[in-house]
Design brief:
The chain is mainly β and 283 residues long. The protein folds into two domains: 31 residues; 241 residues, Jelly Rolls, CATH 2.60.120. The protein is built from two helices and 17 strands. Strands 1, 3, 4, 6, 10, 11, 13, 14, 15 and 17 form a ten-stranded antiparallel beta sheet that branches. A hairpin with a 3-residue loop joins strand 13 and strand 14. Helix 1 crosses helix 2. The termini are far apart. GO terms for molecular function: hydrolase activity.
Length: 283
């Protein structure tokens, strides 16, 4: 097959995409709306699961809503005792753009591990809370790790941690439990907007205040013994954490991209328009 034939096919494909993308940008497909997962009033649609406790028990009233803020609080705790908590949204997602605006406040609860200082997370492609054992610390999931600065040195945020999972990057399987992003450090109690573009089992991109800070492929379960690759994660639950440091969430919202998943041209056009806007948390 000649190089000229390949070139002609490439040009035809490119022109087809331009025409298709132009059509998409000019209709409603390119203007999807944000759906609020947190309604600003209560925890409707969300279910807590704490280690050592039954599903649905909001241990020590840790998750609560006050003044339009979804709070993680430890004022009713004596000590932490590795009692990790997660607040699960009611439905799974596959292809989507999710955003959370968060900040760290106050002091870490007594007994909280050092690594959990100013630490929370958005768990995605996770297992259901019903499938977790009573003493399980974290759901098997991918985690966008949210970290606040310590006031000394650099501490990136919207990193990646992988409880029970792994992923691929630059063609290589990555088994490290946590991988740092390239974000800046956010000290103090400032608000930060984290966004995750999740496209099934193909691509995941992390953003901090509108800047891309990490990209990787093929989220998957830990492999069976003797295997290198696990089962690809196409969808799963979404949850936020209670890892021992008080945290505020004033917004958790999502754009469901599932209806575009089978049309790559439409999906690409919608994503390009969405990500052409730089969304930064207002202080």
């Amino acid at each position: 097959m000649s190089k000229y034939y390949n070139l002609r096919n490439f040009i035809l494909l490119a022109l087809t995409f331009v025409v298709t993308a132009g059509f998409v940008i000019n209709n409603n497909y390119a203007d999807p709306k944000w759906e609020q997962l947190f309604n600003g009033k209560d925890m409707k649609g969300w279910t807590p699961k704490f280690r050592y406790h039954d599903l649905g028990e909001n241990f020590n009233n840790t998750f609560r809503v006050e003044n339009g803020i979804l709070e993680v609080r430890y004022d009713k705790w004596d000590k932490f005792d590795e009692t990790y908590g997660h607040l699960f949204y009611k439905k799974p997602y596959s292809h989507y753009l999710i955003a959370a605006e968060y900040r760290f406040v106050g002091d870490q609860v007594k007994g909280g591990p050092g690594w959990a200082f100013r630490n929370n997370g958005i768990m995605f492609h996770g297992q259901t809370p019903e499938s977790m054992t009573k003493d399980q610390d974290f759901p098997n999931s991918m985690e966008a790790q949210l970290l606040g600065g310590t006031g000394k040195g650099n501490r990136t945020t919207v990193n990646l941690c992988t409880p029970g999972t792994q992923f691929e990057r630059d063609g290589k399987i990555i088994t490290n439990h946590c991988t740092d992003s390239k974000s800046q450090t956010y000290n103090g109690d400032q608000w930060v907007r984290a966004e995750l573009l999740v496209l099934g089992d193909s691509v995941v991109v992390h953003y901090a205040n509108g800047e891309e800070v990490m990209r990787y492929n093929k989220p998957q379960t830990d492999p069976a013994k003797g295997q290198k690759e696990g089962t690809l994660l196409k969808s799963g639950t979404i949850s936020i954490q209670a890892e021992s440091h008080p945290t505020d969430f004033r917004k958790i919202e999502i754009i469901d991209l599932e209806k575009y998943a089978m049309n790559p041209a439409k999906l690409k056009a919608v994503i390009e328009k969405l990500m052409s806007q730089k969304r930064v948390a207002v202080q």
